[in-house]
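Q: what sequence does this backbone want?
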């Protein structure tokens, strides 16, 4: 479990760096309203951020998810692997969906405050030149300051955990789809049906496919979460009020706003996340139950020193089970 956690952390950081600029575009589009529309679409948003706020504008609030996503991915892969013990056959689509749902539920309690901080920091200084943003008085100085002020204003439940219900509503179906989607891709595009035998470029494509599938089933909940977390404390009574008011004012299209940016973001983020995790696990994690028994038997028979015959063996490099 410790190795799964470590591999997940490395994979999470890699994916975050690759996809964070598109996440900023996604959040900006999700939270703008018809009365205060700054961007006409994903490309327009991307260009304006680059011109007005420089390249660093895309990475506002990245400190929080950089460390948070590492922990979250570590938890997700660890919990998902541990949950496999609940099933006799853990590699069926049903088993993968259930273990993914469990992992998504648990990690939401950590993910929610991290995304609260990320969203609020991403919304600061919209349209400001980098120098002006640095010199201006900002509501939040950084991630810690954002958490402190959120707690001071509304406490832990309604401040720090603001939007938790929507994070759960998003992540449970998202991870329910995530692991079966990867299994589906491996089964159909690996020459042998095993991920270890897929070319690197196919693993990257598979990671992107997996991420897009996971976001597609959960995206409307992410829109509500972002709008609720970014809004003033008393703008909405609760997440349901946020969803109803958003629908009444802007129609059903509001729940798809920023989806293109999200899809583009999912490609580099997930193209690296799962393949990196799988590569690390195949390379460094060799389960004891997959030791090459033939090699062990041969060494026991041929070894002339009995003191080593019962203790020495050469484990074969084992590949991770397809998940």
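A:
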């Amino acid at each position: 479990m410790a190795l799964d956690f470590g591999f997940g952390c490395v994979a999470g950081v890699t994916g975050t760096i690759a996809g964070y600029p598109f996440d900023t575009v996604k959040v900006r589009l999700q939270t703008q309203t018809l009365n205060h529309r700054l961007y006409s679409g994903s490309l327009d948003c991307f260009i304006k951020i680059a011109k007005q706020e420089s390249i660093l504008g895309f990475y506002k609030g990245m400190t929080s998810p950089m460390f948070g996503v590492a922990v979250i991915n570590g938890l997700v892969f660890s919990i998902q692997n541990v949950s496999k013990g609940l099933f006799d056959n853990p590699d069926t689509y049903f088993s993968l969906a259930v273990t993914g749902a469990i992992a998504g539920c648990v990690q939401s309690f950590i993910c929610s405050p991290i995304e609260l901080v990320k969203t609020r920091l991403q919304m600061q200084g919209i349209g400001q030149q980098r120098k002006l943003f640095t010199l201006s008085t900002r509501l939040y100085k950084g991630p810690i300051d954002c958490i402190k002020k959120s707690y001071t204003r509304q406490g832990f439940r309604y401040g720090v955990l603001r939007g938790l219900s929507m994070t759960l509503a998003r992540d449970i179906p998202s991870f329910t789809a995530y692991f079966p989607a990867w299994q589906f891709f491996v089964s159909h595009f690996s020459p042998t049906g095993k991920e270890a035998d897929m070319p690197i470029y196919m693993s990257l494509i598979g990671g992107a496919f997996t991420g897009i599938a996971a976001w597609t089933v959960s995206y409307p909940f992410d829109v509500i979460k972002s709008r609720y977390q970014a809004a003033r404390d008393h703008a909405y009574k609760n997440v349901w009020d946020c969803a109803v008011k958003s629908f009444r004012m802007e129609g059903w299209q509001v729940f798809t706003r920023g989806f293109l940016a999200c899809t583009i973001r999912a490609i580099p983020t997930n193209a690296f996340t799962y393949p990196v995790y799988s590569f690390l696990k195949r390379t460094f994690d060799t389960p004891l139950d997959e030791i090459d028994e033939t090699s062990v038997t041969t060494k026991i028979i041929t070894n002339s020193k009995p003191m080593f015959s019962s203790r020495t063996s050469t484990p074969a490099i084992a590949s991770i089970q397809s998940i």
